[in-house]
Amino acid sequence: MFTLTGPNHIDANTAVHRLTETRKTDLAALRRRLSDALTAAHTFRDPDLTDEANNRRRADMARAAREQAAADLDRIEAQANQAAALVRAVADKTTARPAGGAAEQLLAETRQARAWDRARALLDAGRTTQDVIEGADLDTLHALRTELPTYLAAQHTKPQGLAGAEFTEPDPARVVHTVERALADRLPAEQGAALRARLNLDALEPGLRETLAGLRREVDGTADASNALRSAVAARIADQQAAPHPAA
Hints:
The chain is mainly α. The chain has helices at residues 9-43, 51-95, 102-124, 129-134, 138-155, 172-186, 189-220, 227-242.
């Protein structure tokens, strides 16, 4: 149950836990129910019915099983979408810097600009991104979150000709994730907890979406024989790509 003032960091972490259980337990249970129901449909035989009547009954049972599974999956997916939206809304609201008056905004912008100048000087001198992040205060981390993706992109321009064939653009999401992990550790407890919940959601959600998509194919009857393996591999890859990596 959410608080009267709206969802907070506790609700956000509860939602992430619920999404974890959805993937691990709820979707697996739905897959088993569908499999059992389809097996019962395919093996149904009433000796008092004709072959044609038995075939119709099997088709009706299979259709009913898929319709029920589709309704259950729709409900689970809608709840997952609501939970993910709640986590992001709480993180955005809780970690937003207070607007304040014009003078306060100017002061905050000035502090952040100076923090970025110091951080950029360290980077230009050869310090690694990870070193700068680990030694950063809050103003510097806020500055890094804003400025670092552009800075790193400028340091990695694509070579001309054949040398650029294997060039890979730096992934801004990786470095922003690293900065936000550091922010979560340095922010006041409730703000840090809200941001950490969103970061945990970012790591969880891609694999959950792949699992949902694979089960959707089973429910609507478009899955092939390799669907279960293909879905598991896709979810695993999504987990690996979403996992946090240290900044360079």
